[in-house]
C-alpha cells in the first residue's frame, strides 16, 4: 500500500475510533512501528490528531474549527445576540480588548460599532470587516487567511 493511501486509511480509522495505537496500526498495515509514527507525525502536523504515548487521538477541535464562519453565525443566532447584549455592560470606556473569530463575539462587536474609545486586537477578517466604518481602532494579528473560518493564522513553515 502506498504511503498516501495508508495515511488516508489511518485518518479514517482515527475519525471512526477517536484513537489508535501504533502497534495495532503496524500490524494492520504490515509496516514498522517507526513508519506508523512518521505517518502519525504528518497527521499531527496537519492538526488532524494529537500523538500520545503509543498512539494518537483525534483532534476534535479540528473538526469544528473549519466550519464556515457564516454557517456558525447562523446557528443559535438569537442566543448569541442575547449573550452579546448581556456582555455589553462589561466593556469599559477607553479599553483595549482582544476578539477571536467566534460568531458570538461578532454580535458583541456589532453592538460596539458606535463607540470611538475602544481598541480591538483581532485575528478575525470578519471583525475587521464589521468595524471597518467605525471609529474603533482595529489592530490585526495578520497572517494567512483561512477562507472558511475567516481567521488569520501564522503560516506553517515546512
What does this structure look like?
With 158 residues, this protein is an alpha/beta fold. It has a three-stranded antiparallel sheet. A three-stranded parallel sheet has the order 4-5-6. The chain has two domains: 62 residues, Winged helix-like DNA-binding domain superfamily/Winged helix DNA-binding domain (Arc Repressor Mutant, subunit A); 85 residues, 3-Layer(aba) Sandwich (Rossmann fold), CATH 3.40.50.1360. 21% of the residues are buried. The protein contains eight helices and eight strands, in the order αβααββαααβαβαβββ. It starts with a helix and ends in a 5-residue tail after the last strand. The model has no long low-confidence stretch (mean pLDDT 90). The chain is elongated. Helix 2 packs across helix 3 and helix 6 crosses helix 7.
Outline:
The protein has 158 residues and is α/β, with parallel strands linked by helices. The chain has helices at 3-17, 22-29, 33-45, 60-65, 69-74, 77-87, 103-112, 125-130; strands at residues 19-21, 49-52, 55-58, 96-99, 119-122, 137-140, 144-146, 151-153.
